[in-house]
Amino acid sequence: MTDLYTSQRAMRRMRKQAMDRGVVAVLDVGTSKIACLVLRFDGPEKFRASEGVGSLAGQSSFRVIGAATTRSRGVHFGEIDTMQETERAIRTAVQAAQKMGNVRVDHVIATFAGARPRSYGLDGQIELADNAVTDGDVARVLAACTVPDFGDAREVLHAQPVNFAIDHRSGLADPRGQMGNRLAADMHLLTVDRSVLENLLYCIKRCDLELAGVASSAYVSGISALVEDEQELGSACIDLGGGATGISIFIKKHMIYADSVRIGGEHISLDISKGLQIPLATAERIKTFYGGVVATGMDDREIIEIGGDTGDWEHDRRTVSRAELIGIMRPRVEEILEEVRTRLDAAGFDHLPAQQIVLTGGGSQIPGLDGLASRILGQQVRLGRPLRVQGLPQAATGPAFASAVGLCLFAAHPQDEWWDFDIPADGYPARSFKRAVKWFKENW
Prior knowledge:
Radius of gyration: 23 Å
CATH class of the domain at 118-192: Alpha Beta
Distance between the termini: 17 Å
Oligomer: single chain
Largest sheet: 5 strands, mixed
């Protein structure tokens, strides 16, 4: 992964080739499930040059022809823990989706939730040689952004221009073709743990698949769960997954901050399992059917049969009231929301105009969660569902599939990133990139 710029450009070319052939798969590698959607692209409007540097929202020329999910294995905190188990689960999901779509898939675009994401806001400016801004000028101004030393153990996952200014006019989505003397740019840089990313790439390679792109789960969940006005005015998407909770903040249709909390729905199930001394699978079932976070007077009288097959008659006929179950679940949910509030405060979320918060992901379906989140986070909170995508099965339209649907939109209309521009070799922001390009030129 030393030649980051080159490998990301290669993945973009690979994605374009896959879309030209008409079929590409998206893969959501999560802690609780692995989802695979096979997309078929129709029509010539796959890459419109007029889209430029801007939002990827809008009508997409694809439909879902295959969908499959399988229980995730070997993934903890959104990161691959056991390579062989995860490889087997990915193969199962991809093969089932291929069978449903009756096509063979060679290229996948993947998303993952963990890897301790960290956001940086960068800026740079250049003098314009000609008065009109060209692609080369955009490349030069992005190269002029000062990249912090984020360490050898980290890797850049997203590097997106979020704002341009020409002379004293700011807030430009696409400056190309406009006249001026000085061009400035603001860029959002998202870094993740290199080892986590390399494990994912290696696992997909072991599955005999070519990686045509990779994205942060927090980012793609925000794309699918936030409506256009929320992306424009400043909103946060909280993606409550199985092993990690992703946080992303959007304004002017660009992600400006991302983070994750290493606690998720699986930890709530573990609390129930330990508290009631029952198997994890039983705890998951009880959480799904009877869970909640707000107790009422009726909950003391609602009795839940735990069941079991240990052979001990007394043990297998145990019951618990719903109020007791809520008493186990609520502290962990409060802990997740308190951590989220800490991250949002650190990001300066209270300075944004709208401050809408949208909850999505499988964990957001716990009854009463939106009311509790509104009290703890102190903002307007709503439950979000992913956008409707043509051909998506009814079973895959719930909040748990927000990141998978967002990845479809990311595949069809990718936002321009730093590596989409031909940045001159001597203008690469970091020394390691200069070394990588020098090596690439000498050896190829």
